[in-house]
Amino acid sequence: MVTARIQGRGFAVPGAMDQAQLWDDYFVDHYDGNRTARRVWSSSGVTTRHGVVDPRVEDVGSWGTGARMARFAQEALPLGKEAAASALADSGLTAADIGLFAVASCTGYSTPGLDILLARDLGMTPSVQRLFVGHMGCYAALPGLGAVADFTVARSRPSLLLCLELPSLHAQPKTATTSDRRASEDDVQQMVAHALFSDAAAAVVLQPGGPGLELIDVVALTDASTSDHMTWDITDLGFKMGLSARVPDVLALHVRDVIDGLLATHGIARESIAGWAVHPGGPRILDVVEDRLDLPADAMNASRATLRDYGNCSSATVLLVLDELIKEGLDPGDHVVAMAFGPGLTLYAALLRAT
Question: Which domains does the chain have, with CATH numbers?
Fold first, then answer.
């Protein structure tokens, strides 16, 4: 049976920023030295992040949504082109070989969209099919991967998935939080978002058969009763994150059943999984997954390294973690589980195998 396999990977990030220096040079004043903000920042697990906007140079907190979207269109095209072109080169294909081009993003919109403009700039054929996966949030890479894999299997043609996120464009205005005032829940949610999120573009090329990382299955679970725990609202001042502290507790309720169900369907024991590509939504998320799945202490190494070096890049992040796992080395037959979480509250998981 023909299956879809990842045979090309490419990534692009804007300029790097030191996390500690960002606090010292900008956010300490942004939050008036608030102790809660300082604690959130220091416990984020992030050392380096990347952004098309450096708040020390441009403070976009007062920008309207229109100005932020215009900047998104300006910055996203070269970043997306670099990531997609790198994935194509890694696969040995040209842009004209691609049958389906899918783009996932929740941080910017324009029409004509990135899918149309990048297909043009990369040199894809006028008949290339396109798919835009919008506003799904941090887990969008996995349903996107499932969609392009289904196309590749059904049509026996290559596909390309690009996840491109620029959350640096959505910094929120300075609040009235002071060092001697207890931060409100909304304040804390913005502190967490500002401490974690970073910009990146990640692309993968899938081909029917051949060597690569084979996509075996994709599953999902949405707990709609907790849909208010994670939100991404379009406001007059960009997109605003709502991130309840209860998110890890909800994931703790579901992650074991979802993963054990996925593995049982394919007769695979949890202990035999060679690599875990878990979206690093934050350090506590990784701790919960590690604990609930009884994973060894080093199972989250690729996820923690990605969080440290790139931050949380929304939908692009799980592809960065997968790349880290592949670089560490996988043997033929090794199984990998990829997981990501987002609004809904939704958990997506994929089972892959090195061939």
Answer: 4-208 (3.40.47.10), 213-354 (3.40.47.10)
